[in-house]
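Supplementary Methods, section 5.1.

A reviewer requested that the exact input to the structure prediction be made available. We therefore reproduce it here, unchanged from the version used in the analyses.
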Amino acid sequence: MNLEIITKAIASKGLKITHQRIVVYQALLASVIHPTAEQIYDQIKESNPAISLATVYKTLETFVENRLINKVPSPNGTMRYDARTDYHNHIYISNTNEIMDYDDIELKEILLNYLKKKQFENLNITDFKLQIKGEKIDPIKGITIS
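The structure derived from this sequence is encoded token-by-token as follows.
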């Protein structure tokens, strides 16, 4: 992704632009798998040997705190990271350990209307995400892929 876009995104959150932040954010933006901190570290460590795993964790947490990225808990308890901050849901595929984005405006409207009808006391709902869990199946054989 364009370096100017990355630096503007980081600066827009009031964060200092550092090499570590640029490299970590760039790696996350390039990923489609909702990576763990370890996966990001493995991706960048060869070309950035001065960056430690602790720096990657700290950088990701700073990005989460400043709403530049989202933290996504996986069913196995590991934290994964998502550069998409717009509304979308996730599908967790348990037999392949994948997390896929799932966009559905109609579903969002249904859930939003449902939550409005419930009229929760002393609660202002600011966000919601639907987490769908499933397994991949072989479309030809109709069996679960392990």
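The chain has a mean pLDDT of 91. These observations are discussed further in the main text.
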